[in-house]
């Protein structure tokens, strides 16, 4: 299949430059640290490259946030044995500050999320600088609460996992700074986690039967991604968005319709759509002429905005204060938008299933994760597509679909088991120390049939994909 994959970086020079840099993952060495819990049996892995970016601490500001905590039932996947690992996961890639402690047998010891819902409502979306300040204000409290609820201290941990990308660099650095401070102070190894891989792998925590290979649709405010997960760290990108993600389209539509954004746009649109006629507005399904698995929501957003303007809907008037006729018009637009937005997902998933089965005929599952996967209409429609193709749909529970620390901790466990992690950072590390942030970081190699001419690869990709880094590392190991 190598000829069908499009590399995320070009030429020997790029590879040599990367391999000369510091490391992301190392095979464990007893001389660096002592694990606090029994160590698993590790496969033999060589180093992975770690590009570094400038990093400075941020100052706190008063931001309104609220802490929501919940403990989830403790599934114990048969896929993995309990090797005694206990990992703290930290997530700050966008607008939620999250931390969780998870055991390697799948037991969720704690889960804490601080939401920036009030900020989202105030700014009509994520304002990076405001989000960074909100993260900075609550990160210590969130992590401490996660440890307290797990009835553990830092010294009981085996490692710290943290999201290093993709996401907003200002936000990512708050979580990375906190993770390095803990790991340095307590001599703990670190695992740098890919945010989208974490969304895909958390299903392996909650669903005992989920084995590689499987297909994953990852849908959120910032991401639309269809991948074939062949193995841990080995992904083929079947499709992605050429402009906006579906969650962005939901959020903008909700804002233009004057809905309450404190719970984000998705739930507000889903609720309003139940009262409307989904056939009332004839929106065009995006990219009908493109026979691939890529997504586009910018054009649909424009169609929605024009429909709202033609109905003379004033978003400054909250829907609760609008006339009955106005409320009905808004509901019709919401229902029609949702029907077409999800139909676009359905068509792309249908083709992705066919492509994936040609590559890996043993596939049995489609995982749908990310914030938009909490939408019941999305789940119901995709379930029909999946069942028609003889597969099973797997969705993590809603609390694990939106950004959370559990998915980061679990992904850390999966990689730690096979020896992919960093040694502890220095204790008392200076705040301006350069650290690895990857705001734009592809997950997998592009499938050649799915390559989009409309998408500029030069601007869209900064770091080599996770898959290409692991493949380069394995090739390097074999040549030693």
What report would you give on this structure?
This protein is 39% helix and 15% strand. It has helices spanning 11-19, 117-123, 128-149, 169-186, 195-206, 246-256, 265-273, 298-310, 324-359, 376-388, 398-401, 405-417, 457-460, 466-479; strands at 5-6, 66-69, 86-91, 96-103, 108-115, 159-165, 190-194, 214-219, 224-231, 234-240, 365-369, 392-394, 445-447. The protein has a 7-stranded mixed beta sheet with strand order 1-13-10-9-8-11-12. Strands 2-5-4-3-6-7 form a 6-stranded mixed beta sheet, sandwiched between helices. α6 crosses α7, α7 packs across α9 and α9 (324-359) runs parallel beside α10 (376-388). It is globular. The two termini are 25 Å apart.
Features:
480 residues; alpha/beta; seven-stranded mixed sheet; six-stranded mixed sheet; 13 strands; 15% strand; globular
Averaging pLDDT over every residue, what do you get? 83
Tell me the distance between the termini: 25 Å
Which sheet architecture does the biggest sheet show? Answer: 7 strands, mixed
Poorly predicted tracts of residues: 6-79
Helix content: 25-40%
Write the layout of secondary structure elements.
Blueprint: E1 5-6, H1 11-19, E2 66-69, E3 86-91, E4 96-103, E5 108-115, H2 117-123, H3 128-149, E6 159-165, H4 169-186, E7 190-194, H5 195-206, E8 214-219, E9 224-231, E10 234-240, H6 246-256, H7 265-273, H8 298-310, H9 324-359, E11 365-369, H10 376-388, E12 392-394, H11 398-401, H12 405-417, E13 445-447, H13 457-460, H14 466-479
């Amino acid at each position: 299949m190598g000829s069908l994959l499009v590399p995320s970086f070009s030429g020997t020079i790029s590879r040599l430059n990367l391999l000369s840099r510091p490391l992301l993952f190392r095979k464990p060495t007893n001389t660096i640290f002592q694990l606090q819990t029994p160590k698993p049996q590790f496969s033999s892995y060589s180093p992975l490259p770690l590009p570094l970016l400038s990093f400075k601490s941020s100052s706190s500001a008063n931001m309104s946030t609220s802490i929501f905590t919940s403990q989830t039932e403790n599934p114990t996947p048969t896929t993995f044995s309990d090797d005694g690992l206990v990992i703290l996961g930290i997530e700050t890639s966008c607008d939620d500050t999250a931390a969780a402690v998870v055991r390697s047998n799948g037991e969720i010891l704690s889960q804490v999320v601080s939401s920036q819902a009030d900020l989202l409502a105030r700014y009509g979306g994520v304002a990076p600088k405001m989000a960074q300040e909100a993260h900075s204000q609550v990160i210590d409290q969130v992590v401490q609460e996660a440890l307290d609820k797990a009835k553990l201290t830092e010294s009981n941990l085996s490692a710290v996992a943290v999201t290093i990308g993709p996401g907003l660099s200002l936000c990512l650095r708050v979580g990375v700074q906190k993770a390095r401070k803990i790991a340095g102070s307590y001599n703990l190894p670190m695992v740098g986690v890919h945010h989208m891989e974490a969304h895909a792998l958390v299903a392996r925590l909650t669903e005992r039967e989920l084995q590689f290979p499987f297909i994953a649709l990852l849908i959120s405010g910032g991401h639309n991604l269809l991948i074939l997960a062949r193995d841990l760290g080995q992904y083929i990108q079947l499709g992605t968005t050429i402009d906006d993600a579906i969650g962005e389209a939901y959020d903008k539509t909700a804002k233009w319709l004057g809905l309450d954004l404190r719970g984000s746009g998705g739930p507000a649109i889903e609720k309003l759509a139940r009262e409307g006629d989904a056939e009332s507005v004839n929106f065009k399904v995006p990219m009908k002429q493109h026979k691939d698995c890529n997504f586009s929501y910018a054009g649909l957003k424009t169609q929605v905005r024009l429909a709202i303007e033609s109905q003379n809907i004033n978003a400054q008037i909250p829907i609760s204060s609008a006339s009955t006729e106005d409320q009905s018009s808004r509901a019709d637009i919401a229902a029609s938008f949702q029907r077409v937005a999800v139909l676009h997902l359905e068509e792309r998933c249908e083709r992705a299933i066919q492509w994936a089965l040609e590559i890996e005929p043993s596939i049995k599952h489609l995982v749908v994760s990310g914030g938009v996967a909490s939408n019941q209409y999305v789940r119901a429609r995709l379930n029909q597509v999946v069942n028609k193709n003889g597969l099973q749909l797997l969705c993590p529970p809603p609390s694990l679909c939106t950004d959370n620390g559990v998915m980061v901790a679990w992904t850390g466990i999966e990689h730690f088991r096979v020896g992919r992690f960093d040694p502890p950072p220095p204790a008392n590390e200076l705040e301006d120390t350069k650290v690895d942030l990857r705001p734009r970081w592809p997950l997998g190699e592009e499938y050649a049939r799915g390559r989009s001419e409309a998408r500029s690869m030069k601007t869209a990709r900064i770091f080599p994909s996770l898959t290409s880094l692991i493949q380069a590392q394995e090739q390097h190991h074999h040549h030693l």
